[in-house]
């Protein structure tokens, strides 16, 4: 399974756009990239998932360059409630029984 | 549409005891995975159940065992509890065979071993 590397922490202010980059140099051809958000004492919450180029939903955007060795989660106009830990996961799509490996994540601290 | 539910929310045990945690998957899901999350760390994969059988296992000792029932709900059992077993235990469900297997997590059970 591809290992991921993320910054340990990031600070931002309300209203700013936040970009969190994840490195996954050993990503395999059939691997997808998934991001989760976790608040203290809660389970991780699915944010977004993609395979290549750009994916956008109502919460975030995910940018994946052509070589797919990294990905960037973009959170537009963050608020205090976006303070959380964000995890990047890389793994194969279904039809297999997958182990999902979480790294240490990026702790995002949004300030007023 | 009910999401993933777990019980109990909190639990206190003493060393050497046994504990059973329970999980009901999201409606329409047939696969359940269990994770252990120590304070300040990311979730660590314990094992995954599908069709009432353990399909994948992480690096956890045999003290950790599980079960999946015909209604897809699942139990996590931990025997001979150690202080280091204190953690948030997360259950996640997904639907096997879908093109992209997204896991949905429950709120977790906080276990404290004294």
Describe the structure.
The complex is a heterodimer of chains A (about 110) and B (about 110). Chain A has about 110 residues and is mainly β. Chain A contains no helices and nine strands. In chain A, strands 1-9-8-3-4 form a five-stranded mixed beta sheet, with no helix packed on it. A four-stranded antiparallel beta sheet of chain A has the order 2-7-6-5, with no helix packed on it. In chain A, strand 6 (about 60-65) and strand 7 (about 70-75) form a beta hairpin. Chain A is globular, with a radius of gyration of 14 Å. Chain A starts with 8 loop residues before the first strand and ends with a strand. By secondary structure, chain B is mainly β. In chain B, strands 2, 4, 5, 6, 9, 10 and 11 form a seven-stranded mixed beta sheet that branches. Chain B has a four-stranded antiparallel beta sheet with strand order 1-3-8-7, with no helix packed on it. In chain B, strand 7 and strand 8 (about 75-80) form a beta hairpin. Chain B is globular and about 40 Å long. The interface between A and B is medium-sized, with 24 and 32 residues.
The global form of chain B is: globular
Terminal Cα span of chain B: 37 Å
Low-confidence stretches of chain A: none
- Cα-to-Cα separation, first versus last residue of chain A: 38 Å
Oligomer: heterodimer
Strand content of chain B: over 45%
Major β-sheet of chain A, in short? 5 strands, mixed
- How much helical structure, as a percent, in the residues of chain A? under 10%
How confident overall, as mean pLDDT of chain A? Answer: 90
Order of helices and strands of chain A: EEEEEEEEE
What attributes does this structure have?
heterodimer; A: mainly beta; five-stranded mixed β-sheet; 0% helix; B: 114 residues; mainly beta; seven-stranded mixed β-sheet; 11 strands; 50% strand
Provide a quick synopsis of the model.
Chain A has 112 residues and is mostly beta strands. Chain A is built from no helices and 9 strands.
């Amino acid at each position: 399974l591809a290992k991921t590397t993320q910054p340990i922490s990031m600070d931002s202010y309300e209203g700013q756009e936040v970009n969190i980059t994840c490195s996954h140099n050993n990503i395999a051809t059939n691997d997808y990239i998934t991001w989760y958000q976790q608040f203290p004492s809660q389970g991780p919450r699915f944010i977004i998932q993609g395979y290549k180029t750009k994916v956008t939903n109502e919460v975030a955007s995910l940018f994946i360059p052509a070589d797919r060795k990294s990905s960037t989660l973009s959170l537009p106009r963050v608020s205090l409630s976006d303070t959380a830990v964000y995890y990047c996961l890389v793994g194969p799509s279904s039809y297999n029984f997958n182990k999902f490996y979480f790294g240490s994540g990026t702790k995002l601290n949004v300030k007023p | 549409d009910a999401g993933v539910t777990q019980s109990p929310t909190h639990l206190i045990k003493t060393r050497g005891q046994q504990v059973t945690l329970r999980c009901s998957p999201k409606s329409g899901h047939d696969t359940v995975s269990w994770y252990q999350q120590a304070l300040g760390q990311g979730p660590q994969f314990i094992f995954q159940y599908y069709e009432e059988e353990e399909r994948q296992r992480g690096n956890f000792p045999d003290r950790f065992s599980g079960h999946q029932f015909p209604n897809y709900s699942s139990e996590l059992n931990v025997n001979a509890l150690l202080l280091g077993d204190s953690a948030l235990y997360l259950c996640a469900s997904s639907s096997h065979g879908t093109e992209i297997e997204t896991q949905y997590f429950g709120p977790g059970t906080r276990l404290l071993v004294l």
